[in-house]
Amino acid sequence: MRLNNFISSSGICSRRQADELIKQKKVRVNGEIAPIGLTVSLEDKVEVDGKLIKPKSNHVYIALNKPPGITCTTERHIPGNIIDFVNHSERIFPIGRLDKDSEGLILLTNDGSIVNQVLMEKNNHEKDYIVTVNKGVTPAFIAGMSKGVKIYNPVKNKYTVTKRCKVVKLDQKKFRITLSQGLNRQIRRMCSHFGYNVVKLKRIRIMNIELGNLPVGKWRNLTEQELKVLLRKVK
What we know:
The protein has 235 residues and is an alpha+beta fold. It has three domains: 3-53, Roll (Structural Genomics Hypothetical 15.5 Kd Protein In mrcA-pckA Intergenic Region, Chain A); 61-120 and 212-234, Alpha-Beta Plaits; 126-206, Alpha-Beta Plaits, CATH 3.30.70.1560. 23% of the residues lie in helices and 29% in strands. The chain has helices at 3-9, 15-23, 82-86, 115-119, 139-147, 186-193, 224-234, and strands at residues 27-29, 32-33, 46-48, 51-53, 61-66, 93-94, 103-109, 127-133, 150-153, 158-161, 166-171, 174-179, 198-206, 209-210, 219-221. A hairpin with a 2-residue loop joins strand 13 (198-206) and strand 14. The model has no long low-confidence stretch (mean pLDDT 92).
């Protein structure tokens, strides 16, 4: 397998982070500094920062109903980080992010090989959110949100128009939105464009994984069927 996949499969980081470690010359294979794109096998001796690693034979895939106030970071020195909150026996990391102020479904794993495939925008993996705003949801607001909104993209340092999406009014101040992209604070900034403030934002679905009745602050392992469908979509 490719070296970045080998490293991520050990559970120490994502595949993208593995590429950075390789670029920083922190990875050795059989005693030699490894180049990007190298292919390795289980017989090879792979070291990261001098520590010998091996792919995990048993991966962990969990769904958490994240409460507001928890930060989706692996940095343990940050108060309220998601790793300490979950307190799993395995070294896991979140797949993507959910704003600190937001709540709902987020997946965590120690299988770094699936992270990029879940998050990659071109794969069009859908996520559903229930959003409560500070004033009445109008037909014009629903139409405007649906057809795409011009917002600033700090990563690319330019304005971008969000992809068309499905938006359904649920009640006077609440709507459901389905996104296939994940720009920073995207829903909040889309709403702000129309003069709305988000009061509550809750993610209820990621691809085939539903939040269901999982209590806030609790997590569960993905079912065999959920995992089978998820892995079929990303591998």
